[in-house]
Amino acid sequence: MVLNKTTSPLKSEELDISAWDMDNCPVRDVIDRISGKWSTLLLEALAIRPYRFGELRRLIPDISQRMLTQTLRDLQRDGYIEREVFPTKPPSVEYRMTDLGRSLFEPLSKVLQWAVVNHADVKAARERFDASELA
Amino acid sequence: MVLNKTTSPLKSEELDISAWDMDNCPVRDVIDRISGKWSTLLLEALAIRPYRFGELRRLIPDISQRMLTQTLRDLQRDGYIEREVFPTKPPSVEYRMTDLGRSLFEPLSKVLQWAVVNHADVKAARERFDASELA
DNA sequence: GAGTGTTGGTCTCAAAAAGAGACTAACACT
DNA sequence: AGTGTTAGTCTCTTTTTGAGACCAACACTC
Questions:
Q1: Percent helix, strand and coil across chain B, each rounded to 5?
Q2: Would you place residue A131 in the very low, low, confident or very high pLDDT band (cuts 50, 70, 90)?
Q3: CA neighbor of B25 nearest in space, from A57, A48, A67, A40
Q4: Is the whole-model pTM more than 0.85?
Q5: What does the pLDDT look like over B61-80, one tens digit per residue?
Q6: CA torsion, points A14, A17, A23, A24, in degrees to nearest 10?
Q7: Cβ–Cβ under 8 Å, residues A19 and B108
């Protein structure tokens, strides 16, 4: 091994990380589910007020009913939102955020705010990267 | 329309939301890229110290080389990490977090902490949901 | 009373993304 | 000469996602 110079330092931190339990990692378990393409968007909407299925579909025009159903069910399963069926005809269904969901959305909204504030920087970085790619 | 009772209130907030520009939404543009299955995990590692390609692969045993390459390139493109090639033989490549990456990781780490703290609640919610599903 | 619209989904099929694993070149060490 | 290392790419299969048809039951219109 010739490259020890770059790999040898910080053995202790390395051990620290290999202690990550990849199979039962809370972070992966939780994040994998809220990191879907639509999850954040739906949490963002339901953080404002409850919405009905059809309202959400109209609010996010490019989501398919299939993914809307599935993402809402996943969010409900993990306890972030509640689903209530009203026995009207045709039945209407309302989704609303739970306390757990609101508690998650608090730190999550900070990341969303970061995205708004730093959007220009990210786009600039992308342009630099794409420009240097053509070389 | 018979269901006006449920849909009529809060017209102003509704307008607020339909003002979301779905096509050029900063939140979607930024979040869609860091919300991949592996992005958060890699940012978490590189927040600690720089790592080389092979180190990251060993650190996250269940990532394929293909997805590791691709996710690292995406994170680099958006300006969160830097890639440096050392002209050793065989060449070694080091990935390190940029200032922009660190600034993103600050709020992001709060969500990660939330995940650790509330993991039990989420698992409990899942079990309740799955139990009520069999009905 | 036939036609149209509304509700919240499910079902099927096509397209896109992700995972598994073989393969590469150039050198070090045995 | 044979094995191991590096950071990838390439191909093939499996999984995930998207597009759209379809559903039942009722309200309203003509």
A1: 65, 10, 25
A2: very high
A3: A40
A4: yes
A5: 999 999 999 999 999 999 99
A6: 160
A7: no
Name, in order, each residue with C-beta under 8 angstroms of A124's C-beta and a sequence gap of 6 or more.
Answer: B79
Residue type, A28: R
DSSP letter assigned to residue A38: T
Report the pLDDT value the prediction gives residue B24, as an integer from 0 to 100. 75
Residues B42 and B101: beta-carbon distance below 8 Å: no
Nucleotide nearest to A95 (CA to C1'): C8
Say which of B41, B77, B111 has its CB closest to residue A111. Answer: B111
Residues of chain B whose pLDDT is less than 50? Answer: 1-15
Q: Quick check: B27 and A7 CB within 8 A? A: no
Query: Under an 8 A CB cutoff, do A17 and B129 touch?
Result: no
Tokens of A121: 């920087």
- What SS3 string covers chain A? CCCHHHHCCCHHHHHHHHCCCCCCCHHHHHHHHHCCCCHHHHHHHHHHCCEEHHHHHHHCCCCCHHHHHHHHHHHHHCCCEEEEEECCCCCEEEEEECHHHHHHHHHHHHHHHHHHHHHHHHHHHHHHHHHHHCC
